[in-house]
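USER: Please consider what follows.
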Amino acid sequence: MDTRDPKFEQYWNGHKTSILMKDDEYRAAVETYKISSGSDWLLFGIPVVAGIVSMQYIPIEKEILRWIASILITVVVFAICVYVKSLSNPHRAISDIEADVKRKAYKEYLSTGKLPE
């Protein structure tokens, strides 16, 4: 469905968060990304530990390069941990849910002629 109506797009950009937070599926999907258990803390603590430990074992003589390499390792391990967390998420992707909510709001706009509240 084409949602290129400038009036609707302007409304959507201004009220996107409030509309999305009214949707139960979206709220449930967002909640799964929050740190809520010990395994979540462990999963997001692993990159910090990897960065600290890598500082000791990186065979680079220059200190600044060792720091940069350690930061890169931390970022990569963090990305892997976020990916692992997303695999355990039982919900659809947030972007898919957002597109569905936008489509529903646009259908409501077309059928009623009024912007959703």
Remarks:
- Residues 1 and 103 are 7 Å apart (CA to CA).
- The mean pLDDT is 85.
